[in-house]
Amino acid sequence: MSTRTVIRGGLVITASDETHADILMEDGRIAALAASNTPAAEALTAERTVDATGKYVIPGGVDAHTHMEMPFGGTFASDTFETGTRAAAWGGTTTIVDFAVQSVGHGLREGLDAWHAKAEGNCAIDYAFHMIVSDVNEDTLKEMDLLVEEGVTSFKQFMAYPGVFYSDDGQILRAMQRAADNGGLIMMHAENGIAIDVLVEQALARGETDPRIHGEVRKALLEAEATHRAIRLAQVAGAPLYVVHVSATEAVAELARARDDGLPVFGETCPQYLFLSTGNLAEPDFEGAKYVCSTPLRPQEHQAALWRGLRSNDLQVVSTDHCPFCFSGQKELGRGDFSRIPNGLPGVENRMDLLHQAVLDGHLTRRRWIETACATPARMFGLYPKKGTIAPGADADVVIYDPAAEQVISADTHHMNVDYSAYEGKRVTGRVETVFSRGVPVVTDREYTGHAGHGVYTPRSTCQYLT
Ligand code: URP
Ligand code: ZN
Ligand code: ZN
Ligand code: ZN
Questions:
Q1: CATH number for the domain including 175?
Q2: Is 409 helix (H, G, I), strand (E, B) or coil?
Q3: In 142-278, which ranges are E strands?
Q4: 45 in any annotated domain
Q5: Per-residue pLDDT tens for 406-452?
Q6: How many Å apart are CA 81 and CA 451, to the nearest integer?
Q7: Ligand 1: which of 63, 65, 66, 67 to mutate, most ligand atoms within 8 Å of CB?
Q8: ipTM score here?
Q9: Do 305 and 255 contact (CB within 8 A), yes or no?
C-alpha cells in the first residue's frame, strides 16, 4: 500500500527544533519536510492531505518501560498487548519497549520466546523488548550476548524483591561485566530489597497493614543506597547504567554526582512520581492500594528534584512503568497486608498529555517534552532515528496534537483495561487528535482506526546515547 499523506501547517516539534512545516509521509516513512507556505511545501502532494493548522505535529511517543500481562504477586497485569498498545496509541505513543521476563531456573531465550508469543499479531503499535534477568549464571551470561546480537540490547536487574527477581551484588557485577563486553545496557531497579523486607516484616508484626505503610518501609534512603551501589558496581565493571523509575531526591543526587564525575549513568522517572505523592497512598478505605508501586510514591517535596533533574539532564527519560492491576480483585489481594498488593500503576495512555501539562506548568520546554518522551528513549534503547523524531527516512510515527483542547482524565473515558485511573478527575490541557503509525492512521480525529497486528516487532541496536 503506497498511500501518501501530507500534513500541512502544523508546528513541527522535535527534540531540537520547532518549525511550521509540511510533512510528506510515503510508504510508512517520512519522505520530506518543507517550511509551510513555500513553493517547496506546495510541491509536496499526496492522495490525502491533513490540515494541522493550530496544532502541534510531534513524533509518536516512545514508552521504554511497560509491563503488559506481567505476572506479579500471583496475578497478571491487566492490560494485554492488544488492550495496552491500543491505549498507548490513544495517548499518542507509537512504540513501547516491554519487559520479557526470565523466570528463575529458566533461560533468557525461553522467557523472550514467551513474550514474543504474547505480543505477536496483537499490537496496535510497534514494540520491542528488554529482558528481565532474574537468574545470573554461565548460561544466562552467554544468552545475553545472543540477545544483544538479535536486538534485545538492554537487561533489567532487581536489587529489590528477594526470592523473585532479586540479584545479589555478585550477580549484578557479573551481568554488568558482560554488558560492558557485549554493548548491552543494564537497567536497574535500585532499592535495597533485603533491608526493605526486614522493615516490611517489622511493620506487619506491629499490625501496620495499610497501603500507606508501603511508602514508609520503602525508604528514600534505601533507594539512594541502592542507586549508589549500582553506580559503583557499574563503574567497577566499566559498564553504562540506566536506573529505572527514580523517585527520591537522594537518588537523583547520586545520579547527578556520578554524572558530574563523568560516569555514563542515566536515569528515568515516571509521571506518577511527578504528579502523585504519599498523600495518594494514604487515601482511606484501601483506596491507597491504587497507588502502590515500587519505587513508591514519595512526599510531594521530591517532585521538585525530579523536575529539576529532568531540566538539568541528570534524568533523561520519562516512561510510564505501565503495570496496571484492577482495584477490584487484584489490588484487593492486599487487603489486610500491604505487602500483598500487586505493585504497579496504569499510565501508558496518559504520559504524553501529563508531560504536555508540565510544559504549560513551566516545568519543561516543549522540546524537552519531546526529548524526554520520544527522542532520548529512542536513542537510549537503539531505536533512533527510526523512532523518536520527525526527519526524512524516519518511520512515519506522527501525532497531531491539539495543545488547546481540554480534557478530564478518567477511567470512564480511558482505554486501558483497568477499572480506575491514577489521575481520576485531573484536568489537563492538550489532547491527541490523530496518530499515524508508519504512515497508517491508528487514531483519526479521536476515533480509533487501528487494528491488532498492525504493530510489528522492532529489533534494536545498542544504546546510542553514549556516542
Ligand atoms: O511497581 C512496579 N514498578 N511494578 C512493575 C515492576 C517494576 O519493578 O518495574
Ligand atoms: Zn522496577
Ligand atoms: Zn517496571
Ligand atoms: Zn495495518
A1: 3.20.20.140
A2: coil
A3: 154-158, 185-189, 241-243, 265-269
A4: no
A5: 999 999 999 999 999 999 999 999 999 999 999 999 999 999 999 99
A6: 12
A7: 67
A8: 0.94
A9: no
Question: How high is the pLDDT of residue 466?
Answer: 85
Query: Cis before residue 269, ω within 30 degrees of 0?
Result: no
Position 271 in a domain: yes
Residues with C-beta atoms within 5 A of ion ligand 4: 454
Q: In total, how many domains does the chain have?
A: 1
Q: Is the dihedral of CA 423, 324, 116, 234 positive or negative?
A: positive
Tens digits of residue pLDDT in 30-62: 999 999 999 999 999 999 999 999 999 999 999
Q: Which ligand has an atom closest to residue 3 CA?
A: 4
Provide the grid cell at 1: 500500500
Set of cell numbers at residue 448: 480509533
Q: What is the pLDDT of residues 356-379, one digit of tens each?
A: 999 999 999 999 999 999 999 999
Which residues does a 6 A CB cutoff place in the pocket of ligand 1? 67, 189, 245, 293-294, 321, 323, 343-344
Q: Whose CA is nearest to atom 7 of ligand 1?
A: 294
Neighbouring residues of the ion ligand 3, judged by CB less than 5 Å? 321
Instruction: Find the 293 Cα to ligand 1 centroid distance in Å.
Output: 6
Is residue 372 situated within a structural domain?
yes
100 vs 117, 119, 175, 266, 344, CA distance in Å? 11, 10, 17, 21, 16
Residue 77 lies in a domain: yes
Q: 77 pairs with which residues across the strands?
A: none
Cα gap 55→430, rounded to integer Å = 10
Domain boundaries, position 271:
60-380
Task: Out of 293, 322, 348, 418, give the residue to mutate to test ligand 1, the one with the largest number of ligand atoms within 8 Å of its CB.
Answer: 293
Whole-number Å distance, alpha carbon 460 to ligand 2 midpoint, is 21
Nearest listed ligand to the Cα of residue 441: 4
Q: Which atom of ligand 1 is nearest to the CA of 244?
A: 9
| Nine-digit cell string for 283 | 487515601
| Pair 56, 434: CB distance under 8 Å | no
